[in-house]
Amino acid sequence: MIGRSRPAGRHRDGQAHTPVYRRVWDGPACAEAEVLGNTSPGWAVLYSLSMRRFFGLCAWPSPQAVMISDSSTEGLEQRMREAETLLILHMPPAEDRSRSLGRAA
């Protein structure tokens, strides 16, 4: 046994090689997260296998990091739109932003 190389899969000495089914954990959920991430510019969308939740991380400049989560892609998408709306409502006018940037420089 020691030093012998074996082919991948289930096998025992003297028996034929049997291929093993490769399990894809939560494949549909990971695919949904990828689709939502591709259709939502400004967001990085991930699926956590251990928590069984979808996470959205904003990729635009904001005063603090924005990370939201939900158990479904529909719920996460709704929360993402709410976060975008809140950011727009709390954003100072463009003139104020340029003045504050000019003072900081």
Task: Characterise the protein shown here.
This protein is of the alpha+beta class and 105 residues long. The protein contains three helices and three strands. The protein has a three-stranded antiparallel β-sheet with strand order 1-2-3. The protein starts with 26 loop residues before the first helix and ends with a helix. The relative contact order is 0.10. The model is unreliable at 100-105 (pLDDT under 50).
The topology string of helices and strands comes to HEEEHH
Count of separate DSSP helical elements = 3
Overall outline: elongated
What is the terminal-to-terminal distance?
Answer: 70 Å
Query: C-alpha Rg, in Å?
Result: 24 Å
Q: In oligomeric terms, what are we looking at?
A: single chain
- Proportion of strand residues: 15-25%
Low-pLDDT residue intervals, each spanning 5 or more residues: 100-105
Name the strands of the widest sheet in spatial order: 1-2-3
